[in-house]
């Protein structure tokens, strides 16, 4: 029946009035429990509003009352009270609504050439809802509708990384959760079952695989590693060569960590993938207050890269590459 506000026909949730007028990109966030998904979203939104927004002449606005309210709470918790997000509640306790944002970018990457609006939908599930094929089933409709997936991999979950970290004064290492390889395999199986299997059985949805908490890996990285500093974003362009440098660096790190098992699995399952490394906080939480952000607030490194890659692949961002012929159009295996 007619309603005074626009609602979804399936679930009857409110749809912000401009939701249907824009191109939309659903970004699914996947990762084991405590891999850093909620912290990442909160920091990413803040960076898109500030440093990254400035570099790309972009602006981001929370859409609809529910996102506006949660956006405000997330920012107050992390940036004013310096509190890290609580564990996300599992779907069994009530479904978590996705976060909707309108991202406005100049056409052709230049201000004054008109604006293109894109709706970004972030879905931040609880880790335990992604911890097995059965649990993930609840999310399948949303995962199969996603235009891009960001898989967060917590390096502190990997045995060989835990063994190599120097004795540190940060908070204790997290308990071991679902291995990223299993999440990736279950995810691919779900997507294939929903018609996302392309040539040679590989899933066609692009996947950005990001190693999180890179602030903890300093002792394992070269001090000049590209992973330890932000991407340049020169002239408001996505730097393809920089992305490849990070991709190769993370690939060789992972080869060292697990003999490349995760990478081999990903290459068998996904047709388009790129590896990233990021730190949402820039430093470990204080040892005496592990539920708090570092005292100086989040100082993120490379949080925007996975999303920018997904947007650039869709032609929504101008790309810069000194080796265009060699790198192709942003496709990497
Ligand atoms: N060192 C470091 N630790 C981080 C970073 N981001 C998150 N963490 C740690 O990881 C914990 C979990 O982060 P969350 O963002 O809640 O993880 P999640 O994936 O949303 O977890 P669930 O909602 O339970 O699935 C935080 O409480 C921090 O202790 C980071 O950038 N660096
Ligand atoms: Mg969470």
UniProtKB/TrEMBL annotation:
Query: One matching Pfam family, short form?
Result: DO-GTPase2
Which intervals hold domain Double-GTPase?
25-216
**Gene3D superfamilies associated with the record:** P-loop containing nucleotide triphosphate hydrolases
Q: Which InterPro entries match?
A: DO-GTPase2, P-loop_NTPase
Where on the tree of life does the source sit, at the highest rank?
A: Bacteria
> Where is the chain membrane-spanning?
none
Protein name (record): Putative LigA
Q: Which organism is it from?
A: Streptomyces viridochromogenes Tue57
């Amino acid at each position: 029946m007619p309603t005074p506000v626009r609602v979804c026909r399936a679930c009857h949730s409110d749809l912000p009035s401009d939701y249907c007028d824009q191109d939309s990109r659903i970004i699914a966030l996947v990762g084991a429990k405590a891999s850093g998904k909620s912290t990442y979203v909160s920091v990413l939104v803040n960076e898109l509003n500030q440093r990254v927004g400035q570099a790309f002449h972009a602006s981001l606005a929370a859409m609809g009352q529910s996102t506006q309210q949660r956006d405000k709470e997330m920012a107050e918790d992390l940036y004013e009270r310096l509190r890290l997000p609580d564990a996300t509640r599992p779907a069994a306790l009530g479904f978590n609504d996705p976060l909707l944002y309108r991202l406005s970018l100049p056409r052709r990457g230049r201000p004054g050439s008109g604006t293109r609006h894109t709706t970004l939908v972030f879905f931040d599930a609880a880790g335990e809802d992604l911890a097995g094929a059965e649990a993930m089933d609840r999310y399948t409709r949303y995962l199969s509708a996603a235009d891009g997936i960001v898989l967060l991999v917590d390096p502190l979950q990997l045995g060989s990384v835990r063994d190599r970290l120097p004795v540190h004064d940060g908070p204790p290492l997290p308990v071991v959760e679902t291995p990223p390889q299993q999440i990736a395999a279950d995810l691919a199986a779900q997507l294939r079952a929903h018609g996302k299997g392309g040539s040679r059985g590989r899933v066609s949805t692009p996947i950005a695989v990001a190693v999180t908490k890179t602030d903890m890996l300093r002792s394992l990285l070269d001090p000049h590693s590209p992973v330890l500093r932000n991407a340049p974003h020169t002239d408001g362009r996505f730097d393809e060569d920089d992305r490849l440098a990070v991709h190769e660096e993370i690939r060789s790190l992972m080869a060292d960590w697990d003999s490349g098992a995760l990478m081999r699995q990903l290459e068998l399952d996904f047709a388009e993938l790129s590896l990233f490394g990021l730190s949402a906080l820039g430093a470990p939480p204080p040892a005496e207050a592990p539920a708090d952000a570092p005292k100086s607030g989040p100082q993120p490194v490379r949080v925007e890269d996975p999303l920018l890659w997904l947007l650039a692949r869709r032609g929504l961002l101008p790309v810069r590459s000194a080796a265009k012929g060699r790198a192709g159009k942003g496709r990497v295996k």
